Amino acid sequence: MNVKPFHETNVLVTGASRGIGAAIARRFSRVGMNVVIHYIQSHESANETARQCLNYGAKVMTISADLTSKEQLLRMKSKLEEHGMLPDILVNNAGISHYGLLADVSEEEWDLIMNVNLKGLFLCTQAFMPRMVAQRFGRIINVSSIWGLAGASCEVPYSTAKGGVNAFTKALAKELAPTGVTVNAVAPGAVDTDMMQGFSTEEIHSIQNEIPAGRFAQPDEIASIVYFLSLPESGYITGQIISPNGGWLT
């Protein structure tokens, strides 16, 4: 196992301009790892996350790409290679949610949800996995959802996509286990991010009342689990779907 010191370790976090992704980027930068902050359109938010990471003295790079486009992804990979920032740790966090009755979901909406949450994860992993295998060390951590485990009414496409993320994680973990590359997923329950803004105050209180812990998770709490799974000493943990959800699903 070729373990690098933290200051030589590169981390790519997709969808890192805000929310859970930004918290993950900050968590890695705090220990001096080099962080790539990926985003699609949220340029200012990505720059703000970068500024926060730079405050810890980390090497930081921001990059924009549509991960569902293989052409754009390969262009991103080439830029990272030019800057010596190809990832040793890949955090597949980019994703979109959807709320509504299945009967009202259009084919275009279904395709978009599957492409962003699953195809993007596949293409990104496929692009950066070979280097990890070659150096016999790497960490692939996929951000899933509690709904990928339990399913959610009025969130059928999203639940389906995140269920696919979980299956992808388990299968790839077995495939890569002999190489020193681990593959795990973190499947949070309700997290206090922009994703919750579509719910009314009454709906939010109703959800919180269902959670034994009585509150939503903070993004930093999810980031801490992602960070733990990335450590060299976590090398015997692979193929796991870890769900921090305050006791909501046990």
TrEMBL record:
Pfam families recorded: adh_short_C2
A GO molecular function held by the record: 3-oxoacyl-[acyl-carrier-protein] reductase (NADPH) activity
EC number: 1.1.1.100
InterPro entries: NAD(P)-bd_dom_sf, Sc_DH/Rdtase_CS, SDR, SDR_fam
Keyword vocabulary terms for this entry: Oxidoreductase
Gene3D superfamilies: NAD(P)-binding Rossmann-like Domain
Lineage top rank: taxon: Bacteria
Family: Belongs to the short-chain dehydrogenases/reductases (SDR) family.
Name the UniProt record assigns to this protein: 3-oxoacyl-ACP reductase FabG
Organismal lineage: Bacteria, Bacillati, Bacillota, Bacilli, Bacillales
Recorded name of the encoding gene: fabG
